[in-house]
Automatic annotation (TrEMBL):
<dbReference type="Pfam" id="PF07729">
    <property type="entry name" value="FCD"/>
</dbReference>
<dbReference type="GO" id="GO:0003677">
    <property type="term" value="F:DNA binding"/>
</dbReference>
<keyword id="KW-0805">Transcription regulation</keyword>
<dbReference type="InterPro" id="IPR036390">
    <property type="entry name" value="WH_DNA-bd_sf"/>
</dbReference>
<dbReference type="InterPro" id="IPR011711">
    <property type="entry name" value="GntR_C"/>
</dbReference>
<keyword id="KW-0238">DNA-binding</keyword>
<dbReference type="Pfam" id="PF00392">
    <property type="entry name" value="GntR"/>
</dbReference>
<dbReference type="GO" id="GO:0003700">
    <property type="term" value="F:DNA-binding transcription factor activity"/>
</dbReference>
<keyword id="KW-0804">Transcription</keyword>
<dbReference type="InterPro" id="IPR000524">
    <property type="entry name" value="Tscrpt_reg_HTH_GntR"/>
</dbReference>
<dbReference type="InterPro" id="IPR036388">
    <property type="entry name" value="WH-like_DNA-bd_sf"/>
</dbReference>
<dbReference type="InterPro" id="IPR008920">
    <property type="entry name" value="TF_FadR/GntR_C"/>
</dbReference>
<protein>
    <submittedName>
        <fullName>DNA-binding GntR family transcriptional regulator</fullName>
    </submittedName>
</protein>
<feature type="domain" description="HTH gntR-type">
    <location>
        <begin position="17"/>
        <end position="84"/>
    </location>
</feature>
Length: 219
């Protein structure tokens, strides 16, 4: 199904200096949740109508997502949702491991009080994650997994590392949500994340590396 075939309720008009960024965020969410399926064409005119804006900001938003690797521009054909393969998934999870381990090195060197605060923030996400797993809400559990690891990397306090991770994490969520390089059952997801929280609080960098590797190679 192409994007032009999708029936979506018109979105309220946007008045902002960051119109293209706001549109990109909404479109990113639609790619992740499958509203715009892999391989579907992005209809610039339809999107502009939905957002009640001119086509200029939409074009900028689409280009932003092309640069992020979520969409691809095909010469003389238009812009399409990128179709991720099993090889793509393997590369994405390998890149995640490198970036998360880099963040772990920074976090492990922080004072104990800072690590405890980071661990407490991560623990609150794990509580929600466990609730989602118990409720059988796989989609929410996957999003909370995404939130946990994004917060972990952001906690390093390195803005460039966080930006690099953001795109990879979104691609990873798409892989999991669309079962590309299908993820295993989520039964022990909570346990894995609880272990990462405790290792983070202790500043156990080797333990974090091992836990991250084990978690990501499960996919």
């Amino acid at each position: 199904m192409s994007a032009s075939d999708l029936t979506t309720a018109p979105l309220p008009g946007i008045q902002s200096q960051s119109t293209s960024a706001i549109i990109a965020e909404h479109l990113r969410e639609r790619v992740v949740d499958g509203t715009f399926a892999p391989g579907s064409q992005m209809n610039e005119a339809r999107i502009a109508s939905d957002f009640q804006v001119s086509r200029g900001p939409v074009r900028e938003a689409l280009q932003r997502l092309v640069q992020e690797g979520l969409l691809e521009s095909r010469r003389n054909r238009g812009v399409f949702v990128r179709e991720l393969t099993d090889d793509d998934a393997a590369e994405i999870f390998a890149a995640r491991e490198v970036l998360e381990c880099a963040a772990a090195a920074v976090i492990a060197a922080k004072p104990a009080a800072e690590r405890s605060a980071i661990a407490a923030a991560l623990s609150s996400v794990v509580t929600e994650l466990n609730a989602a797993i118990e409720a059988g809400n796989e989609a929410r559990a996957l999003r909370l997994d995404h939130e946990f690891h994004s917060r972990f990397v952001e906690s390093a306090g390195n803005s460039r590392l966080a930006r690099a991770y953001a795109t990879i994490a979104t691609e990873s969520l798409i892989c999991s949500s669309h079962a590309v390089g299908a993820h295993p059952p989520l039964g022990d997801f909570g346990t894995h994340h609880e272990a990462l929280v405790h290792l983070t609080e202790r500043g156990d960098i080797e333990g974090i590396h091992a836990a991250v590797h084990q978690h990501l190679t499960r996919h």
